[in-house]
Design a protein that fits this description.
The protein is 69% helix and 1% strand. It is an all-alpha fold and 494 residues long.
């Protein structure tokens, strides 16, 4: 590209940003580097999955499963199902070197139109909306100690949440290694917070606090439909195993690290989630859990006494780490899509010194901040919730199709066909359940997906744009490049 030469790219390098580069990318190239090792990969997956859910709202599983034993069984089975999903994504990540995660896999298997539909929903609502909700949760628990028994005012929550978003996305613009270190630290912190709950629960078990656990399957009971909703709520807490796939071009030794990171992280999370729920039931009755708006905080007040403040702190640290994980992972699929011509060209560029996808990070920060100002962001997510499991099911179906379409593709890790088929059927079942349970939200979500069609034809199909429009777009791109000091990648990294 002609305007790229303005920067004399070869003369501008930051040695710090190039210190951990794999041999497949030249050290002096402006390109995304393989800087994320195995531990950081596990931290990204665990940090993306463990947010506020396990601390705040495990009551949804209890409500729909109808008993203590039923709830624990659902949590365990959800972990097994999530493990199957992680294994499927590990095969895709270890065999397809290109980043972008689900967008890339849909594009490879079924073409750009279906990939664009998923990209559109994720880019404008799902990813930034989820990040905004997590940031709002962080803000609530970060400032709660200053308001005593009163609820923090909405304006204060919004300001702190916006500050959190801007802070996280800003330092992500400057260093991939720095952002992964933050992810490592906060993942360890949130696991320690859960360890406090688990260890205390084990102590209570040895002290004989088993009254509520001994209830077993006693309770109002359940049925097939309510049990499906219990699994829907439980699996929502396990969502996030695709975070590492978005960053496939930055993973060190992906053939080895993808399956190890995916399987080990899902196994660890399953044990943590089940043991955390066991610990909850050593102190909380089913009725108390169902009445609580923040289960971990209520548990802390009863179990930790004067140390109850640890639970709000744990939730705040967990959610901050989840925002960081979202910034790391979500910016990459948009970057890859822009590089493929599915989003504006500016989003496909990286900073010449920091080697980060700065334009994409800034764009996602702005969208997230905008959604964060909307107090009912969760309703937007509800409208597109069913589409998440739909696209995940299609991605795993695509895994099977790629085995037929590209039989010679190297697959260092290969899941049994039965695993992929089972997981895909579970995803489609969740789609059916969500549509049946919330038909209005499903209709609106479908409308949101359909809005992608005109943008697809304008940005992707319509290549031969008028000269004046093309001149304006190219001129705007050059101005943005000079302002942000960004260029296209010099070498292919996949």
């Amino acid at each position: 590209m002609e305007q790229d030469s303005v920067y004399e790219v070869k003369k501008r390098r930051a040695s710090a940003a190039s210190s951990a580069i794999s041999s497949d990318v030249p050290e002096d190239a402006v390109a995304m580097k393989r800087q994320i090792n195995l531990f950081a990969s596990i931290a990204i997956i665990m940090g993306s999955i463990i947010g506020s859910g396990i601390f705040i709202s495990p009551k949804g599983v209890l409500e729909y499963s109808g008993s203590v034993a039923g709830a624990l069984l659902v949590w365990t089975m959800c972990g097994v199902i999530a493990m199957l999903g992680g294994m499927c994504y590990a095969e895709l990540g270890s065999s397809i070197k290109k980043g972008g995660g689900e967008y890339t896999y849909l594009n490879e298997a079924f073409g750009e139109f279906l990939a664009f539909l998923m990209l559109w929903v994720n880019f404008i609502i799902v990813s930034p909306g989820n990040c905004a909700i997590i940031a709002q949760t962080f803000a609530i628990y970060a400032i709660a100690p200053f308001y005593g028994d009163c609820d923090p005012p909405a304006w204060a929550v919004t300001l702190i949440a916006e500050a959190c978003i801007i802070l996280v996305y800003s330092y992500n613009c400057y260093s991939v290694k720095g952002a992964t270190w933050v992810q490592n630290i906060f993942t360890v912190a949130k696991v320690l917070g859960l360890a406090i709950i688990i260890v205390t629960g084990i102590v209570f078990l040895f002290m004989g606090y088993t009254e509520y656990l001994e209830l077993g399957f006693q309770g109002p009971g359940t049925n097939i439909f309510r049990l499906s909703l219990a699994f829907y709520n439980g699996l929502f807490a396990y969502v996030g195993w695709a975070g590492m796939n978005n960053m496939a071009e930055e993973i060190v030794n992906p053939k080895r690290n993808f399956p190890i990171a995916a399987i080990s992280s899902m196994a660890i999370i399953t044990v943590i989630y089940v043991m955390t729920n066991v610990a909850y039931f050593t102190v909380l009755s089913p009725q108390e859990m169902l009445a609580s708006s923040a289960v971990a905080v209520t548990w802390g007040e009863l179990a930790l006494g004067s140390a109850a403040w640890l639970m709000p702190v744990a939730v705040a640290m967990s959610t901050f780490g989840a925002v960081n994980g979202a910034a790391l992972a979500n910016s990459r699929y948009a970057f890859v899509a822009a590089r493929d011509g599915m989003l504006p060209t500016a989003l496909s560029m990286i900073h010449i010194e920091y080697l980060t996808p700065m334009p994409t990070l800034i764009a996602m920060m702005l969208i997230t901040c905008l959604l964060c100002m909307y107090q009912d962001t969760s309703s937007l997510i509800n409208y597109t919730g069913f589409s998440y499991w739909l696209f995940v099911g299609i991605v795993v179906t695509g895994l099977l199709w790629l085995r037929y379409k590209q039989p010679d593709l190297e697959r260092p890790f290969k899941v049994p066909v039965l695993v992929a088929v089972t997981f895909a059927l579970i995803c489609y079942t969740l789609v059916f359940v969500s549509i049946f349970a919330s038909p209005f939200e499903a209709v609106l979500g479908t409308i949101i997906i359909i809005t992608a069609v005109p943008f697809y034809f304008y940005g992707v199909v319509w290549r031969d744009k008028p000269t004046k429009l093309r001149s304006f777009l190219d001129g705007s791109l050059r101005v943005l490049q000079k302002w942000m000091m960004v260029v296209r990648q010099e070498v292919q990294t996949f």
